[in-house]
Structure formats: structure tokens, C-alpha cells
Amino acid sequence: MSDDFEYETELQVRFADIDAMGHVNNATYATYLEQARVDYYADVLGVGLDDIDTVLVNLQIDYRHEITLDDETVTVAMGVTSIGESSVTVDYEVRAGDHVAATAETTQVYVDPDEGASRPLPETWVEKMEARRDE
To answer: A Pfam family in this protein (predicted)?
Structure first.
């Protein structure tokens, strides 16, 4: 793991991820990032998918190298770069073998599921994210 990222998860490249060009479809990269966030919330914050209550408000992906079925797995490294009152910004690196296949950034906002309005991040989440960044 590089110093820029405090968390990594490995994901299987599935046949369904491959498009007619023989490589992972560009939209699938967003799914890889999403799964990495789910793993991070479970492993670092101890929060299951039913308790996350965040919405994605920004997604930027820069594609750098193709991923094929022969790669078998990808590693998604991620690091929290900014913690706001109700938002979290995360940088990512999607790796296939020795190649950086993509870099990305997302911002999620914590929301009240009944009202849809933003609300402050739980203090325990902030503490755990900050502690992980400082490791």
C-alpha cells in the first residue's frame, strides 16, 4: 500500500465486467469504487450497507490503462482527503497488476434518509477516519 492511501481492497474482475472491446467497461470502474467504499465502511467504520446513508454527489474518473479478464483481480486503494461537516472526499487508485488503470475522486454526503437533506457526519465516523489517516 502506498503512503497516499490508507485502505486497499481486492476485487475480482468478472466476465460481466467485460465489454465488446474485450476490456472492463468504463462504467464498471464506478462499481469498483462503490464496492471499495462499502468495504471501507465495513472494515474501518464498522458500518454495514444498510447504515451508510450517504449519497454520491461527485465522481471523477481518469482512465489510464485497460483492465482485462486476464488480470483476474483489481486492487482499489483509497484515501480520505477531506472531511467536512456532512461530506467526505476520497481519492482512489485502481490497479491491475503493475499498472494504475485509473485514478478517481468521489464526494459523498451524509443525508437524513427520510428528508433527503444533508446532516452532520456521525462523530464516531469522523474519529475513525481521522485515526486511519494518521496511521
So the answer is: 4HBT_2
Q: How far apart are CA 122 and CA 95, in angstroms?
A: 31
Q: State which residues of the chain have pLDDT below 50.
A: 1
Q: What's the DSSP call for residue 28?
A: H
pLDDT at 3: 62
Please report whether residue 2 resides in a domain.
no
- Specify if 1 maps to a domain: no
> CA geometry: angle at 130 spanning 124 and 131, to 5°?
90
Calpha distance 122→46 (Å, rounded) = 12
Range of the domain at 70: 7-134
The CATH number for 130's domain is 3.10.129.10
Half-sphere exposure of 123 (CA within 13 A, CB side): 0
Q: What is the pLDDT of residue 17?
A: 94
